[in-house]
Specification:
Elements (H helix, E strand, L loop, with lengths): L12 H7 L2 E8 L6 E5 L5 E6 L3 H12 L4 E5 L5 H10 L17 H11 L9 H7 L6 H9 L26 H11 L8
Parallel strand pairs: 1-4
Antiparallel strand pairs: 1-2, 2-3
Length: 194
């Protein structure tokens, strides 16, 4: 492939399409804040999690991470560890999702942001600036916000735990009311008034 340049954003879609699409198993789970869709790979690693009413957003992120023809979805044959962990999380075991394996595309910077998000424990909240400092990029606050918005694995990679510097709720791809519910669910007192 003379002249081919790849800039490290996952496997380029055209190359992945020449190889074969990444097969993903779809699991659907009812939760107190709406149905969620979990996509796992053959090893059981979670590749995406989003709310069912945000399916178009999830598919755009999959296209961005794996290429337009780089993935396929089929109904899961059985529930797995990811479904069990997310079910336990919604039932009150807030640490059930902490060790759940995730695999994502994205840039090196995005993956660093998502890894930092996973270190924010349930009940804690941070700002974009806090995450930028955690990854030793204190001036990259806006880039952290963009990476947060491109997170394909909601809840498990807890982008809902980012709040404004003033303590106010900031946007959330699943909707601010869901974010408020998730934060209250994770607080020991069950209240979040942000």
């Amino acid at each position: 492939m003379s002249g081919f340049r790849w800039h490290g954003r996952g496997v380029p879609g055209t190359v992945r399409a020449m190889i074969q699409p990444l097969p993903l198993s779809e699991h659907r789970l009812s939760t107190p804040i709406g149905e969620v869709v979990l996509l796992t790979d053959a090893s059981g690693a979670l590749r995406a999690l989003d709310f069912a009413d945000y399916d178009a957003r999830m598919r755009r992120l999959l296209d961005r991470h794996y290429g337009v023809a780089g993935w396929s979805i089929a109904p899961a044959a059985a529930t797995g560890a990811a479904v069990d962990a997310v079910t336990a999380y919604f039932a009150g075991d807030l640490t059930a999702i902490d060790s759940l394996p995730t695999v994502t595309g994205g840039t090196t910077f995005q993956r660093a942001v998502w890894a930092a998000l996973r270190r924010v424990t349930a009940g804690d909240m941070v700002s974009y600036g806090d995450i930028a400092a955690m990854i030793d990029r204190p001036s990259a606050v806006r880039a952290v916000g963009m990476a947060n918005g491109a997170n394909p694995v909601a809840i498990v990679v807890p982008c809902h735990r980012i709040i404004g510097r003033s303590g106010a709720l900031t946007g959330y791809a699943g909707g601010v009311e869901r974010k408020r519910w998730l934060l209250a669910h994770e607080r020991r007192d069950g209240l979040f008034g942000g």
